[in-house]
Design goal:
By secondary structure, the chain is α+β, with helices and mostly antiparallel strands. The protein has 2 domains: 124 residues, 60s Ribosomal Protein L30, Chain: A; 187 residues, PurM-like C-terminal domain (Phosphoribosyl-aminoimidazole Synthetase, Chain A, domain 2, Alpha-Beta Complex). Helices cover 35% and strands 25% of the residues. The strands form 2 sheets. It has a 7-stranded mixed sheet, sandwiched between helices. A 6-stranded mixed sheet has the order 1-2-3-6-4-5, with helices on one face. The chain is globular, with a radius of gyration of 20 Å.
Length: 357
């Protein structure tokens, strides 16, 4: 870098798996024997033994608050992002520890409204707030206003992780691709989208906002059974979308996978928003899309349980022995499946914010 030049900015969003392995994974503090599952690329939860036959599952994420959505929606989404990752353990989210580092222009009245809606969302999910920190600081700004940890407790033979898929498992997908990408575009840019896509498409994309959670999807799926009796692995298709989520599940489980791209549901309103924004719907961020590895003899039962609960779902692939590799099948053609890297949503969102401000 020449003298006087500013350093290049790193890409926005979660670091890629290779950077995680090189930078983070090598340095994880003191090893402790009670840690069953520690940090790993593509694994949503940690699992720690807490006594005979009992485990604690934990996950940590940013607190993501967007005031433009309105405080009720912003609070609902912030809490469901946090609870959704904890639900990937197959256990029920139960406890929340939350750190709010807020901008100084957030007044007491708005803070009270935001927190009331956070409380109401936690209450609806059965989650108790057990600790935290709340403050205003210079340099803090939306949407990332802190971090939080959600905990779940359960029997040691009932938890699962995204690293526990088995060869032969059927890959199921709930709701379809790019749910979050489309919903956030509609919630943030309703006017520009309505002008370009029409009011009906924009309204249907906006209605997906309340579906940006996989807490219910996961609870219904594991209600059918876990491990040999049902679901072996769950993963929330957030950054990197369906492609990233499937790659992470297979990689974490040490398996190959065949993704049947033509079978992945893409809702018409989602496809329209993604085409307008220049995003691949299979690679775009998709809170609300659950990926589940299920034993073949229980896959139909999970799909049926989802239907009864009003959750759309489809079989979109199969986990394979590792020597078969990771492939994506579309239109009768086969191509390697790789991680998309940085999610296309962030650049598309920035472009839209600049063009439609």
């Amino acid at each position: 870098m020449a003298t006087g030049e500013s350093p290049a900015l790193a890409p926005a969003g979660k670091i890629d798996p290779d950077t995680f392995r090189r930078v983070i994974y090598r340095h994880l503090g003191r090893p402790r024997p009670e840690v069953r599952v520690g940090p790993a690329a593509g694994v949503d939860v940690a699992v720690v033994d807490i006594g005979p036959g009992r485990v604690l599952a934990a996950t940590t994420d940013p607190v993501f608050v967007v005031p433009q959505y309105g405080w009720r929606r912003a609070a609902w989404f912030a809490i469901h992002i946090l609870a959704s990752d904890a639900a990937m353990s197959g256990l029920t989210p139960a406890y929340l520890s939350i750190d709010l580092n807020l901008p100084r222009d957030l007044g007491d009245d708005d803070l009270a409204t935001l927190w009331r809606h956070m409380h109401e969302t936690c209450d609806a999910l059965g989650v108790a707030v057990v600790s935290g920190h709340t403050a205003r600081y210079d340099g803090c700004s939306y949407p990332m206003v802190g971090g939080a940890t959600v905990l779940a407790v359960g029997d040691a033979d009932r938890y699962i992780t995204s690293a526990m898929a088995r060869a032969g498992d059927v890959l199921l997908c709930s709701k379809g691709a790019a749910i979050e990408a489309a919903a956030l575009f509609a919630a943030t840019f309703p006017g520009p989208l309505a002008e370009r896509l029409g009011a009906d498409v924009t309204a249907r994309a906006d209605a997906l906002f309340e579906r940006m959670s996989v807490v219910e999807d996961a609870a219904v799926a594991v209600g059918v059974g876990v491990r040999e009796e049902g679901v072996t692995a769950l993963h929330d298709a957030t950054e990197g979308g369906v492609l990233g989520g499937v790659y992470e599940m297979a990689s974490a489980s040490g398996l190959g996978v065949a993704l049947w791209e033509d079978a992945v549901p893409v809702r018409p309103e989602v496809g329209a928003v993604c085409r307008l924004a220049g995003m691949d719907p299979l690679a775009a961020i998709s809170e609300g899309t659950l990926l589940a590895a299920v034993r073949p003899h229980r896959a139909d039962a999970v799909l049926a349980a989802w239907r009864r609960a009003g959750v759309d779902g489809a079989a979109v692939g199969e986990f394979l022995p590792p020597e078969r590799g990771m492939v994506r099948l579309a239109g009768g053609r086969e191509a390697p499946l790789s991680h998309p890297g940085v999610d296309p949503f962030w650049a598309a969102f920035a472009r839209a914010a600049e063009a439609w401000a």
